[in-house]
């Protein structure tokens, strides 16, 4: 018997909104890379995210290590997009303004 050595495709797919997910799960590449950078082993990652397969986590980490510059650029872009969404939500739903309005309503009810 001979061993066939073939390159396998990384278990990553890009959703319609541009998010890279691992395997057939909702776990993002961002999540796996972040936990890996924090020092988690592949087994710990699978323990934290049980929908992941161990082989998929190994392959995802291998993909990250082999394409570090591209993945880091993608992660940076995702961080910028997340910050823009936070800023937009903060502008639309000012938490301090909401707190002030709620306190004013509470004060009105206590007076009545």
From TrEMBL:
Gene3D superfamilies: Winged helix-like DNA-binding domain superfamily/Winged helix DNA-binding domain (1.10.10.10). This is DUF433 domain-containing protein. It holds the Pfam family DUF433.
């Amino acid at each position: 018997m001979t061993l066939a050595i073939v390159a396998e495709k990384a278990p990553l797919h890009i959703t319609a909104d541009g998010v890279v997910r691992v395997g057939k799960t909702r776990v993002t590449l961002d999540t796996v890379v972040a936990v890996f950078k924090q020092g988690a082993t592949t087994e710990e990652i699978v323990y934290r995210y049980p929908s992941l397969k161990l082989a998929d986590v190994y392959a995802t980490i291998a993909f990250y290590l082999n394409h570090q510059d591209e993945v880091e650029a993608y992660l940076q872009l995702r961080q910028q997009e997340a910050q823009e969404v936070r800023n937009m939500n903060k502008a639309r739903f000012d938490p301090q303004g909401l707190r002030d309005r709620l306190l004013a309503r509470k004060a009105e009810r206590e007076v009545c």
